[in-house]
Backbone:
């Protein structure tokens, strides 16, 4: 189950963060997201030269904690997309699929003429769309 | 003389240069946003958009006529008969519309709807797809009608902020239609009846024929 | 490719942006009008770069991003690629388009009065035509600046129109202070 | 190929907004051109009134000993007419093509003001090409 997703601007300014748990652990999740940003920077600034995925937007698993797995994605415009899940057995394809939909939703949201770059994304449409994507995560139709 | 059917929107579309709609959509959005900043009053922005549309309409109409073959077919003198007027008006407006936003017809043709339908359902938007503008709601005299759009590329991505409640975001369209019709001797008043950005289920523009200016007759000119 | 509209829609909008700002509310303040028009372009470029880079790997350096602007981005917006790209390797790039799409329908009447309100009379007398066309270049300059800055290359963009009127070749020049250019 | 002598464009109120001679025959000075334009505008309107058939759109062809005059009026009221050698063919296609050029290079030129005289270099260039081109090629359009 996805417990938290986030969009973070190129100066590590949060643009959108949403947790999907019943429990009151939003703060903890935000902290996890925050920590993952350093991992993203680390990964991008010191890429493993041999890696075939050098310039891929999908960064893969950033780090596992006891209860969570954190995945990252970096757009060409230096926007970070973060996914926190409690699933232990996650298929790579599902995560990639999630990010590509999440990315598309983000791009449409910032295409709103009234969105101010660098400001928080307040769009209701975006929130609804993200929540739909989150709900469909791992429902392996592969669509 | 029965009017020959003008070229379909599809055929016209095949004939004109095209660009991807995003450029158009985003440019329009940026204009509206900048106008709101510069003019401050929403009412002023509505007026400015309408004026811009009018300026566009009076020029665009000729390109439409030149490239659609409508020029040889429609004779507005025949419009004295209400029925003729109706059928003319119909084809004409739909023609103009499909030319302004040819994407509709094209999309329909390309059968891309399925995928998009799913996408859109998934984001909870109750948008109808594969629609073209329809002309309807004629009054008995044939002087008022509506142009109804269930899809509109101008508003892709757009969400109005609460501060712009009085804004007619698509007001440029009413100007375009008014300008274009005026150039073919029909003075109209164009008003928004429904607006999806304000929560309606479609866009509806009401066109009211104020007067049909008779063809220019040189002796009455201001010589 | 997704939805399309006829090119006239875009062309008409451009014409109206310029005429609204230059002949309308900022008739006596051409610099202000220019800045507004550029701002409109900036927003569009910013958003377009977000959309057009969606399905591609990340750029490894600035040069790769600039090449993307010259090829893919230019093709999407102006329907052809840049004809020539030059650089002095110190942050200045010159993009040359020998048939810039958005001016391909434009002819300037030598006796043009459209921008008769420009304040510096000497400059006006010298090249009124170039100034009139110049107003139409703020929008594309804004687009390019918006796109580049969103790709991490903050810069200044200007368009050179010295070879008017017959020749429809344009230089877009931009400068950014960067030391990370490989 | 039959020669074209000259081309005129009249705005909807009868003012001459464009006039160009091609070749040496039938040249006129500016005053005569203006007179011809306003005369033609009136005759065109009268012809609509004279027509016994309802819905007449005005004279399309005037044939004389020494020239033919072909006219096309757009729905927006702008008239395009060519004066050419008697019997020249495919003039309707040419006029329609000129109308398209007018929409592309005059109306889309942001510096053109509606109803005013046309001074657009690109329009001139494309017109000259169209007039010299093999007009049969225009038929298939």
Residues:
């Amino acid at each position: 189950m996805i417990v938290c997703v986030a969009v973070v601007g190129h100066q590590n300014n949060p643009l959108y963060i949403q947790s999907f748990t019943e429990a009151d652990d939003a703060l903890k999740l935000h902290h996890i997201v925050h920590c993952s940003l350093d991992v993203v920077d680390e990964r991008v600034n010191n890429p493993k030269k041999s890696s075939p995925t050098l310039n891929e937007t999908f960064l893969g698993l950033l780090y596992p904690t006891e209860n969570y797995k954190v995945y990252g994605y970096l757009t060409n415009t230096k926007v970070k997309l973060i996914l926190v899940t409690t699933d232990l057995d996650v298929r790579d394809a599902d995560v990639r699929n999630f990010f590509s939909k999440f990315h598309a939703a983000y791009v449409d949201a910032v295409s709103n003429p009234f969105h101010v770059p660098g400001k928080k994304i307040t769009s209701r449409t975006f929130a609804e769309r993200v929540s739909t994507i989150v709900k469909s995560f791992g429902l392996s139709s592969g669509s | 003389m029965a009017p020959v059917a003008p070229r379909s929107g599809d055929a016209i579309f095949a004939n004109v240069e095209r660009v991807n709609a995003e450029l158009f959509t985003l440019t329009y959005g940026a204009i509206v946003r900048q106008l709101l900043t510069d003019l401050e009053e929403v009412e002023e922005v509505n007026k400015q958009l309408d004026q811009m549309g009018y300026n566009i309409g009076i020029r665009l109409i000729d390109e439409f006529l030149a490239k659609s073959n409508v020029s040889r077919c429609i004779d507005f003198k025949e419009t004295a008969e209400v029925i003729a007027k109706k059928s003319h008006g119909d084809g004409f407006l739909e023609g103009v519309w499909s030319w302004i936003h040819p994407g509709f017809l094209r999309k329909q043709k390309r059968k891309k709807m399925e995928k998009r339908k799913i996408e859109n359902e998934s984001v909870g938007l109750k948008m109808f797809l594969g629609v073209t503008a329809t002309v309807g709601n004629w009054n008995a005299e044939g002087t008022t009608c509506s142009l109804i759009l269930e899809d509109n590329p101008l508003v892709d991505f757009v969400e109005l902020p609460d501060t712009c409640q009085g804004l007619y975001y698509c007001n440029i369209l009413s100007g375009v239609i008014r300008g274009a019709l005026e150039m073919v001797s029909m003075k109209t008043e164009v008003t928004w009846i429904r607006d999806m950005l304000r929560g309606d289920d479609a866009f509806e523009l009401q066109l009211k024929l104020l007067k049909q200016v008779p063809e220019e007759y040189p002796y009455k000119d201001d010589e | 490719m997704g939805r399309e509209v006829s090119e006239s829609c875009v062309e008409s909008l451009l014409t109206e942006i310029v005429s609204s700002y230059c002949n309308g509310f900022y008739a006596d303040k051409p610099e202000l009008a220019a800045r507004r028009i550029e701002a409109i372009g900036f927003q569009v470029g910013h958003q377009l770069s977000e959309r057009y880079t969606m399905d591609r790997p990340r750029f490894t350096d600035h040069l790769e991003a600039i090449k993307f602007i010259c090829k893919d981005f230019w093709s999407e917006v102006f329907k052809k690629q840049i004809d020539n790209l030059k650089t002095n390797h110190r942050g200045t790039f010159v993009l040359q388009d020998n048939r810039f799409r958005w001016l391909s329908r434009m002819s300037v009447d030598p006796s043009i009065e459209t921008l008769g309100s420009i304040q510096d009379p000497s400059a006006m007398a010298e090249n009124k035509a170039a100034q009139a066309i110049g107003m139409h270049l703020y929008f594309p300059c804004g687009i390019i600046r918006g796109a580049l800055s969103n790709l991490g290359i903050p810069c200044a963009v200007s368009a050179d129109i010295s070879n008017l009127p017959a020749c429809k070749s344009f230089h877009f020049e931009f400068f950014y202070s960067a030391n990370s250019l490989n | 190929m039959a020669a074209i002598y000259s081309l005129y464009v009249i705005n909807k109120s009868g003012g001459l907004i464009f006039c160009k001679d091609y070749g040496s025959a039938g040249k006129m000075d500016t005053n005569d051109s203006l007179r011809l334009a306003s005369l033609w505008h009136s005759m065109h309107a009268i012809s609509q009134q004279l027509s016994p058939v309802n819905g007449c759109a005005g004279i399309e062809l005037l044939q004389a000993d020494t020239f033919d005059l072909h006219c096309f009026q757009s729905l927006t009221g702008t008239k395009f007419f060519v004066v050419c050698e008697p019997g020249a063919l495919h003039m309707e296609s040419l006029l329609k093509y000129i109308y398209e050029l007018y929409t592309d290079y005059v109306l889309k030129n942001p510096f053109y003001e509606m109803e005013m005289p046309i001074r657009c270099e690109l329009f001139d260039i494309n017109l000259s090409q169209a007039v010299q081109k093999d007009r049969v090629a225009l038929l298939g359009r």
